Description:
Shape: flat
Number of helices: 9
Mean pLDDT: 80
Number of strands: 0
Strand content: under 5%
Amino acid sequence: MLGDLRQEISKPQEQGRKNASSPPPAQTSAGEPQVKPLPVEIQQPPPKPFDVVQTIVGPLLAPLATTGIVIVFVIFMLLFREDLRGRFVRLAGAQDLGPTSEAIDDAGRRLSRYFLTQTCINATFGIIIGISLAVIGIPNPVLWGIFAALMRFVPYIGAFIAAAVPAALAVAVDPGWSMFLWTVALFVIIEPILSQIVEPMLYGHNTGLSPVAVVVAAAFWTWLWGPIGLLLSTP
């Protein structure tokens, strides 16, 4: 439904582009007198409310559709997790019920530890960012610390998104470049330490995941579900 709505919204814009790019009418024949061209000024009419809705809502429909599909999948998988578990155990065969059940329970415990570890690391990241931004002098450091902790749940790009807003704010409030450089250096130093040193040790110990498996999962689920798949790829 959202996909069809997106197509319908984009039709008036495409028709307008076609009309704007249409070739000019043919010139008069050589026997007719030349007519002095009149200067023409093209003025953009004020946007109507529907035009504003087209501009804002149109690009959001496809991500909203993907998000809705993912939410439906996740809700049903959580509601019927015991049924899915039983079916998976039966699929493995009657002779392997014990090892299969034990493996599934172990995977659940490891996933629970993964979420707990990730939450602790991201909370630590937010606390460090908030305190450091307060020392640097960025307004509302508590807000940006919480924002950094939440955005870091997005793999690979979350920390960079969290750094963009305080960096832009530093440019706005500081007449020089020192506050901006300190803010960028803060994220450039803290994020690699957590992602390249702390996380591999804790995640590898708690979950037993291979780094290759994490990268393959991120590539597959991002290809399938876009940014939402990247967020859910490791779990």
